[in-house]
Amino acid sequence: MRVSWYGTMTDTRELVQRARAGDARAFEELVRGHYRAAYATARALTGNDMDAEDVVQDGFIKALERLDECDPDRFAGWLLTIVRNRAHNVREREQVRATASIEDVEPAGPDRTDIGAERDELGAALNEALADLSPIQREVVLLHDMEGWKHREIAESLSMSEVMARQHLFQARKRLRELLSRDELKEYLP
Amino acid sequence: MNDDRLDLSPLDPTRDPVRYERAVGRIMDAAALPLARRRARLTAVGQVSRWWRPMLAMAAAVAIAAVSILAQVQPAAAESELSTSPLAEAMGIPSTVATWMTSGTAPSPIDVFEDIEVEP
Questions:
Q1: Which residue of A has its CA nearest to B36?
Q2: Do B30 and A53 make contact, defined as CB atoms within 8 angstroms?
Q3: Helices (H) and strands (E) in chain B — how many of each?
Q4: Could you identify which of A76, A123, B99, B109 might form a hypothetical disulfide with A117, taking C-beta atoms 3.0 to 4.6 angstroms apart as the criterion?
């Protein structure tokens, strides 16, 4: 099930209420319905799949613990705020670790980067190109082009104007096209 | 603008079903305990176990307040009863004895004799 912020609000509201009562199936539906969006946000901020998966997991568990504070009609945006905060924490921790000791910095091998995406060349190239964007541009383009969120949903989730969300998307796409066209991956571009 | 959409499907976390299911499974494993806690909260026993501590604390506070109020009210009430001369008379207590009691001073033997003479 893929849940858009507004598209299945009634379902989401009901699922949130059932999950509040401890219904595991309802919570699993919430997880499945919002996994991609949560992942897109986490991936945009952490920059790699492994940390993104950890952040998403932490984010969902934290959301479950604080589910009573959530407005069921705004679950997606609320969840992404939690995910975003956790991703920032991870990123800060990584930065501290990196500055504390250069020896502690793990090499950019296959274990720290994108295991799934490295399975094909395009995935690796996309990751490389995304790394060149700002976190906000990454989040906007992933939420829009991968997860299918609307500008209004993205703007609300990121507390920015719709115009600004469009602007970030435009800039992100432009930069990605430049980078990807250099990598002989033009066939994947529309 | 949607026509310009980039194909980011290689980054889709659900693209690899095995990995995706494993990730969801990990989340659900971690969620088992918080979910169980939520279910427990809704049962009658869960409600009692959830509220017994605050209820006990509240009952203790009420009891302490009640005792302190009673401790202040009772001596005042006793005093007002004794100072009521008609009531003392109705109970057959001589007025002078009632006066001694309300004043809180012990009578001298002379006072006692005088009183006996006045009110046989």
A1: A22
A2: no
A3: 5, 0
A4: A123
